Fold this protein.
Amino acid sequence: MRAERRGDLGSQGASGSLLIIGGAEDRCCGAGLLERFVELSGGDEARIVLVTAATGIPEQVHADYERVFRKLGVDRAKELRLRGRADADSDSAALMLTDATGVFVCGGDQSRLRTLVGSRTNDIMLERLGTGLVVAGTSAGATAMGAAMILGGEGPEVSAAAVRTGPGLGLAPKVLIDMHFGERGRLPRLLSAVATDPDQLGVGIDENTAILVEGNSFQVLGSGVATVADAEHATVVHPAGDCDPITLFDVRLHLLPAGCVFDIAGRTPAIGPAHDRY
């Protein structure tokens, strides 16, 4: 049953949106990306649930976002504190998520989000995405959106050892997200990930930048760039050792600033009708 719900976001009946943020989004009053999330979630009628599972300082993170959302006119922003799998499977979590118009998955350490994968919380988010729920994720919360999420890895080389991945929430099943992308020089890590799994479309998102996924396409918002790495038709030769460099020919690379759009199904970029930053 779960596998049936992990289709394209643009499959028949799907009407929700994903706002996937590369981290360090502007949290000032009127800040573009968070303001767009509020608008998508219903404006001053929005009922927002903050998932703070990734952070080690949930009280502070909750207070910070609640303050921003209140300035943006939202009076109903509640924290969903998930300390483990039992919480993620609980009736109280289900009740909060069922009532929400928007869910915001906060940043921190994405390894902490593994407890959500396959949980009741995960199932409800998948189901409600098909009926209009808006889900946003920033930093660690962003990389968790795909069927696989990047758990770690650094270094200048493109190799199997340069990236660690694990199962994600499956809300954007065709893409693999990396965050803080340009600022932390993570192109080798993203190329390592798509070389290991060429069926996945790699998307690296800069800070204060987002992709808004609706149907089978996304639009780039914010002040930076979304980098798309497509190895679907590339030649990949894996060496004997995980630390040795991967041979990678004909990988396609796209740099998409605000206003650009990308057809996920067709794997084709385009300049949108207007350069809309937010």
Notes: The radius of gyration is 18 Å. The chain is about 25% helix and 30% strand.
